[in-house]
Design brief:
The chain has 212 residues and is mainly alpha-helical. The protein has ten helices and no strands. The longest helix has 27 residues. The two termini are 23 Å apart.
Length: 212
């Protein structure tokens, strides 16, 4: 676990310049689309992960890391553990932008906590698809994969909005937090964990067999 923390720190050192670009991103989005501020949380986390993976490929970092006294399991685990700070940064940044907009009088609506957490929770699900592709394709296909996932993010944002219109029960849960059955969120939570774990196992299997 200690080694994984250092590997996560390595990713953030690669991202320090990119993270500065998040400031104008949030400012522009807040000024133009403050009514949809909950959707802001998905873009930064996904872009940070994609940028970190792309820089690893461009700098051949994986070739260096496999020569260190580290198991490949630790290298893969670090990529998945890094999803947590990415989510946290997105959450804090979105709340800061909302707070600023609230103080400036741009919005008076209360924080839509359930909607915000649900949007940010979508990121690990996208990462569960992205990371196995990252370990499988490597440098050869990452530009295409990145483009496809940018499109997926855009579709996800519009799709999330349409879900509220098509499923009144879903919209009611976002507004009140009440549900007809506790079984549905329990099953959804278990499926969420299983998908992430299966993604980790697939990435690990690909990376162990791969000649870096």
């Amino acid at each position: 676990m200690y080694s994984s923390l250092h590997l996560i720190r390595k990713d953030f050192m690669l991202l320090h310049k990119f993270m500065l670009l998040l400031i104008p991103y949030f400012l522009i989005m807040a000024y133009t689309n403050i009514d949809y501020y909950t959707m802001f949380g998905l873009f930064p986390s996904m872009l940070m992960m994609m940028n970190a993976c792309t820089l690893d490929v461009q700098h051949n970092n994986q070739r260096f890391l496999v020569n260190l006294p580290l198991r490949r399991q630790q290298l893969v685990l670090a990529k998945y553990l890094a999803l947590l700070p990415y989510c946290l940064i997105s959450l804090i940044s979105t709340l800061l932008i909302y707070g600023t907009a609230f103080l400036l009088g741009w919005t008076s609506e209360p924080v839509a906590w359930r909607e915000l957490f649900l949007v940010i929770a979508t990121f690990p699900m996208l990462a569960a698809i992205y990371l196995p592709l990252y370990y499988w394709l490597g440098q050869k296909g990452m530009q295409i994969v990145n483009f496809v996932f940018i499109m997926l993010i855009m579709i996800n944002v519009t799709g999330f909005s349409s879900l509220k219109d098509r499923f009144p029960a879903f919209s009611e849960w976002l507004a009140t937090g009440t549900t007809d059955s506790i079984l549905i969120p329990v099953i959804a939570g278990l499926a969420y964990v299983i998908i992430l774990y299966c993604s980790y196992l697939i990435s690990l299997r690909i990376y162990i067999k791969k000649d870096v």
